[in-house]
Amino acid sequence: MSTPAEIIAARVNGTYVAEEPKPVKKSKEPVSKENAFPVLGGRQSSPSAGGNTTLWGPGVNGNGNGNGQAKPAASVLKPRPSASSKSSFKNSSVQEAFSLDADDQLNVARAEFIKILTAIKTETKASIECTSSQYTKKRTFLITGAPDAVKLAKRLVIKKLTKPVVVNFAIPAKVRSRVIGAQGRTLKPIISEFQVKVDIANEEESPSPEPEDADDIFAKTVPVTIEGDAEGCKGAKAAILAIVKEETKNMSVKIAVSDFVKPFVAKAAEPVESKYSQLEFSFPAWDSPSTNVIISGDREAALEARDELKDLLASLEARLTVHSVPIPQVKHQFLPIKQIIEEDDVFIKLPEEGETDVKFIGEKKKIAAAQEKARQTTSQYKVDVLDMSKAHKGNLPHVRAVAALLRKNGYFRKIAAAQNVVITPPKFDFLADESNTSIPIEITVNAAEPDVASQTRKAIVATVNKFSPEKSKVIDDIDSFLVQEAPAILDISAPANKADYVVLGNRIVLFDVSETEESDDFDVDVSSADSLSEVNKSLDKLRAKQDSLSSTVLSVDSKKQNAIAGENKAVLKSLIAELPVNAVEVELHNDGTQSSENSIYIHGLKEYVEKIKDSINGLVRDFEEHGKKYTSSVELPAFVLPRIVGRGGSAIQALRREYDINIEQNEKTESVTDKSVKTTLHLVGQKRSVEAAKEILSKSAKKHADETVARVRVEQQYHKRIAGPRFVYMNRLQDKYSVTDFSSQKYDDTPSNKDEITIKGPSRGVAKAEEEIKELLNFEKENGHKESIKIPSKALARVIGKGGETIRDITEGFGVEYHFNRDKAAEEEQGYAEVEFTGSRTALKDTIKRVKEIIEEVENFVTITINVPAKYHRDLIGPSGSVMREIISKAGGEDVARQKYIHLLRVPDEGSGSEEVVSAGDKQIVEKVIEQVKKIVADKEASVVETVEVAKDRHGALIGTGGSVRHKLEEDYGVTISIPRASDSSTEIKLTGLPEKIEKLKEKIAEMTKDDWNEVVEVPSSLHSLVSEKAAIFKTFKSDYKVDVTHGNLTRKASKLTNGYIPAPPEGAVAEDGDDSAFKFTTALLEKPEGEDVVIPWRLQGEKDATAKVAEIVQERLEKAKAATHGGWFYLKDPKNKVPRLLGPQGRNIKEIRKNTGAFITVPRANDKHNGFVYVVGTEESLSAVEKALSQLV
To answer: Is 1042 helix (H, G, I), strand (E, B) or coil?
Structure first.
């Protein structure tokens, strides 16, 4: 048989079918079910059931006893409207049934029970029916009525008829503040709705240990206790857990990665990123300081992705290897680090301090390709280093100052732009360091244009030479503390006297720059000494100030110094910041002369030295009393807190760093508008810092609390004039009255109106700014002026600009308004358009002047085109465009804006088929450009070609390193020089140019290529090695006769022959096994050389007598070599020990044998292929004599 709860549910759902009652056997079956319970809301029982009428109501149970108690059911049936068409409930009503267990019910008398239910019925207008079991004492209720009424009635029944319960559970500590909300705004509605008491412990009271995994939000929890009725506790708990679920469903986790792996993380993590596409991944760039991977999104997915990524990165790190490569530092700047990490997955790590090699990091199989790509890239550039220290006869202090001046005034940058190179001068710190004895200027050029480096060097040298020591003055009598104030004085006095200056460490160097500046007046004869003396006098005010300086040394324990100074010396900096700028300097762990652990050196103006001394002593006393745990609180209006905290906490973090303190808030406060709500901030740190920060917070709160908004009616046509040119008036008001905002934009509390200007800021400042705006508006209305100008039709487009950009820039810049009176028919007939400007007289004057300048540019603009044969196009451009730049410079176009400069001379691209050379721009400049082009073409057309015979080995003297000599000759003589390639046997050099210039160049070439040797001996290549004794004879000639030997074009071949190995010995030359002889000598007839025996010239350079003597020696040796008929191989069993014995001290033995026998003897080197043989060449008799002599030695 169905239980009462099942029957109730069935009746509510319209599916109940009555069962035939069965007799109860009271003596045999215990009552374990509520089968004797009548159905809630049932009608009268049938007569067969006994004819008794079932009475329902409070306090009535099956046996008439009203003492029953019930316990809340484990599950409560939800109300559901009946689907039966015969239901007695109206469509607007619902029913809900639930039970209360005996253990949870209050012990209420029947009368009180009826009274409670009656009161609930009256309050809720709901129908309540109740029954109770005489065995279980459980009470079951059926409530019928409107949905809201049923809900309220159920709450009241449970609240008034059940015992209070206590529910305990835990939530993550990190979401505690979100559950509570600002000022309890989230928790209070839950407490009110469910009529419960909720207690959430503080994080400090958490029983959880510190989590090992910082990303595990559930590792640290806080207990939650809810007191109230069962239903209320259940609802409150569900509401709190819903907030927790919402707050914890998403999370961000961090994975710390090492610098070693960081460059590869993003690419390596692609599989994980693809698998968890619903998550957001943030990877640190290889060149960023960040070392964390951040994963954001669903909590469970984020944690899974984190673990997978950690495993993947560990595997990656195990595969990475490091290859160190020595690369010159000057080429580090050209290494394509970004390109190689993206394309080859290899990271190039530049050496850190103390390191020398560049490191290639990546998987082993990828590193070789990356290294080759890096080599190819760096080889495209060449770095030339010019050491400035050699300038001005090695006057290093002066040259340092000149380098600093050139860097300060952008001279290096200008030279670099003119030559199309990169110039890297030393930094100021390097120049100020007197221990540096060189001043390297790095010039980076394209390797294909090496001559540009030479031109750049010349430009730098010429500029440096302009600043001689005689035109400079060194000032070193000003205290180092006051030197920092010198620039403010010198910035005024130096230009007035045509001087400039630099400050290097504690020295000031003045320069006379009168000859390097352009003048707009007649020269006045003023000597360098006089002008620099005037500048020097302007510094007398600093010299006078030196009398007011003082120094003192405090004795403070080293640890206390670090503590009171604060993190990054924040507290000490705040102390100094309270004094005037540059009033005092403080050095910790220093006594003014050297490092001293327990000393503090103070130097500066006397009065401020004493103040900072007292402040530091005060810090020490406070630290000894409170340490860094002094605590104070400040109460602030909650509505200003977001502004005090700043975006992302930036402002409050800055205050923490500045004063080295901790700032905490009782509860996190969301944005509020109620000005009566307060919040408290707690400050902990050193006493002085806490009190100073507290004062700043109070003032900031007062300032923000006083903020107000005002609106001033200003017609839109006056907005630009009120703002001023480039907003100068608006900016002045902001600075003058601390108005934080001044605009015509819309605020939440102000309606949008194009004829209004909104001012936002402190009330007093807003009032003052409003007053000035009104005064300015009245002035503009009374003094607004208009003026028109006629613009020729051909200049109209230039004046207006693309999309009106030009005319807007002009009018907004001068604070005027414009209006075009356009009439296309009239414009075509008259040839001009009219524009009207409105503004002040001064602004109108400036505006019209600028418009007229544009009109003048257009009217003077011309384009001239001439035909120039393509063969002369290169002559107009020159190496790296040098000729083109020179043409424009001579025409006066050097300072023309770049967008116009490029049109002053345009030469067709090679292979385009066009011969039109075009010049467009200012008429005067264009005419001069065309004039120069015509002259260059005329000179080329008048040119002739002549040839000059120059020995092949002298061609190098005309080419020079990287073609530098040839380019210099072409530049100096105006002649093109064509020299055959090294592989071409031709000795003819072609000269192209004007006849008179060619003649002068021929004289120069003859001078440069004349012979520089006295004697020459021709030695066949087959005998070269014998005659030279493998180059040993050359050293003898150099040391004994001061004679050098060269070989012209055959130098490389001669060197190769000189370094040749001992010929392979014949078979049987090696002693057989078992032969105990210490040596074996084998001879053979010399073979004649195969093919052509090339003759190698021995050119002898030196004194005439010496070269004649050496020539005789060479000739004598050559005759001996020609007379040689046999070669011999003297085999040594133990060459390592025997060869030194053969040589003797300094080769004395071998030299003696050579002299006595006339044979050529070659002693093997250790790295020779046949290093066990002494090779001998000579006649048969001389070889016998050598064998005898050598055998005696071994």
So the answer is: coil
